[in-house]
Structures are given as structure tokens and as C-alpha cells.
Amino acid sequence: MRDQLSVLWLLACALVTAAVVAAALPVPDPAIERYGSGTRNHVVRNGENLSVIAKRYKTTPAAIMRLNRLKKPMIFPGQELLVRR
Predict the structure, then answer these.
(1) Rounded distance, CA 53 to CA 44, Å?
(2) 45-72 pLDDT, tens per residue?
(3) For 1, which of 16, 51, 61, 65 is 20 to 30 Å away at the CA?
(4) CATH class for domain 2-84?
(5) Does the pLDDT value for residue 37 go beyond 80?
(6) Any idea what DSSP says for residue 16?
């Protein structure tokens, strides 16, 4: 009896899981939805800081921080940042 309940429970879970997967809608890529084509990537080079990068793209360090959700103005070489075109 116990084994039969276990098997029934596993079948019920499998059916529910399959139904959830089948009903799920495709999730759009948040980078595309949020940023669209108005941004591009910038790879931080050695010696660069937010002010230098902001000047190159005619924006502000604060705008770059907001766009990349940075809490501190600390960046590292090799880090990818989103910047407005």
C-alpha cells in the first residue's frame, strides 16, 4: 500500500511539473527589453575610471553607475559596462 502511494505521488508530481512547464510563457531577455539598442558594451581597460569612460561617451559617471546598477564607483580592468550610445 505504501509503495503504491509513493508511485501515485511521483506520477502526480510529474504531471503537475509537466503541466507547469507546458503552460510557462517564454521569458524575454531582460537586457534586450530593458536597454534596447540605445546602449553598447564597454570593456574597462587598465587605468580607466568612470570619469574617463563617461567623458568618452558624453555622459556622467552617475549615469553609468545607474545603468549598471553599481553601488560604488569601483570598476576593474576587464569588467564590462553598459554605456549609452
Answers:
(1) 8
(2) 999 999 999 999 999 999 999 999 999 9
(3) 16
(4) alpha beta
(5) no
(6) H
Q: Look up residue 64 and give its amino acid.
A: I
Cell matching residue 72:
560604488
Handedness of CA 74, 76, 79, 83 (dihedral sign): positive
CA atoms of 67 and 83, how far apart (whole Å): 7
d(CA 20, CA 29): 20
The sign of the torsion formed by the CA atoms of 6, 7, 8, 12 equals: positive
Secondary structure in 3-state letters for 29-74: CHHHHHHCCCEEEEECCCCCCHHHHHHHCCCCHHHHHHHCCCCCCC
- Domain coordinates of the chain in residue numbers? 2-84
Identity (one letter) of the amino acid at 17? T
On the CB side of 50, how many CA atoms lie within 13 Å of its CA? 17
